[in-house]
Amino acid sequence: METIRVEILNPKAKNILKGLADLNLISIRKERKKSDLSEILKCLRKNSDESPSLEEITAEVEAVRRKRYENQNC
User: Fold this and answer.
1) How many Cα atoms within 13 Å fall on the side-chain side of residue 14?
2) Terminal Cα-to-Cα distance of the chain (whole angstroms)
């Protein structure tokens, strides 16, 4: 079995594909939409010169946790 992605430019082509599916010659599956989060990340990364390193991410997470725990002790 081979899988290909087809972009339909003319609505008549969709009817032809549905006919082929009715004859059990092909199967049609809708593609899952990418999550909104992945689109946001893609947009943010596009505007960034470089991604933060693992160390930078870890430092930021630890700073937020430290601040949270300091506020709980009050």
Assistant:
1) 7
2) 64
Q: Is the pLDDT of residue 25 over 80?
A: yes
Kindly give, in sequence order, each residue whose CB lies less than 8 Å from that of residue 6, ignoring residues fewer than 6 positions away.
17
Q: What letter would DSSP give residue 25?
A: S
In contact, 42 and 36? CB cutoff 8 Å:
no
**Residue 51 has which token pair?**
């991604």
Q: Which of 1, 2, 28 is nearest to 15 (CA)?
A: 28
State if pTM tops 0.70. no
**Cα separation, 18 vs 23, whole angstroms:** 9
List the chain domain ranges: 1-74
Cite the DSSP H helix spans in the chain: 11-22, 36-47, 54-72
